[in-house]
Design a protein that fits this description.
Structural class: alpha/beta
Distance between the termini: 42 Å
Number of strands: 19
Length: 385
Amino acid sequence: MVSLQKKMNKGYFFFIVILFLFSCENNHRQTIDETEKCVDTIPIHYAEGFAITANEQYVSVKVFNAWDNKESEQIYYLVKDSMIKTPDEKHTIIIPLQTIAVTFCTHIPFVEKLGYIDVIKAVCSPHLIYNSYLRQRYEQKEILSLGDAFNLNIENIILCKPSAIVVTAYDGQDDMRKRLENYGINVLIDNEWREKTALGRAEWIKFFAAFFDCLPFADSLFNDIETKYLSAQQLAQSYKTRPFVMPGGNYRGTWYVPGGHTYMANLFKDATAAYYYVNDNSTESLPLNFEKALEVFANADIWLNAPACTKEELLNADERHVLFKAFKNNEIYAFKKRINKDGANDFWETAVVEPHLILHDMIWAVHQEEKDKGIYQPKYLIKVE
């Protein structure tokens, strides 16, 4: 699969400027050296966490700070010839990558969709991976376990010797990244989880594609995803109802709900569902106690993303769940349709590159008219009964 993809993308690196004829604005320049000539800025339409620029000798990929998109977190310089000089030798990477290690499940579908899943040589928490092919390779000892993403097994990383390891810029990870770089391992920062829209998260496929030298292929893949998402959005807008949705559930005494500027809240909006915190400015989850959740969502029409597969489980977790209108009316849905025997949930994996299906699943749950058609079968959602 890898060799086929490489053949398909042979020469793409030098034709980026032909395929993407967009102006290079000064505020999007990717080079540290202001004298470096910028040839073309690769269009990124929804994602806010990274930018890509093609220069005469290399491609630069800038990852912005996860908490402040005005600040640069890291800039990578991608070359096909090790003799090419760049503004930062330490972060110059020869592409396409030959092997990689991934630390979170959400990294996997990007690599798989690009056709490079065979280059994954190490993973974190293999029991949490849904992808059956990777699980099989792990069981056959073709893939190493790196332990927990927050407590990486450095020895196994060195043993694996990947061309790069993909990490996420959570708080407190800087020391780990520096340590890996000191061992000569390229550390790629994937912050798709911070995007405010589902399409923004999916567009990180272009970030991964840059390191595999297949940007045009990724662009075509994303265009298809975008077209399908916008089509689902139009479908939702064709329905006149605006059901009131309640997300999440009680976890150890706290009910977490999406802030108004999160990708999940924007999915509610695109599904034409009413959401209490739609005007909230938070980009993170909001912690509520049970009493506040009941006050806000007691009369919600639909319970989305419930933390259980059955009503019995919900009652066992907290008998007060019966107080919600959605519970009484049997309008409860959970993203638990694709869970394997070990409890790995594909919603936290493949769904990141299938925002159109997440949206359509929501439309099916929220709008009775869509159910009445009897045509669409949700991929990730189940009705909790």
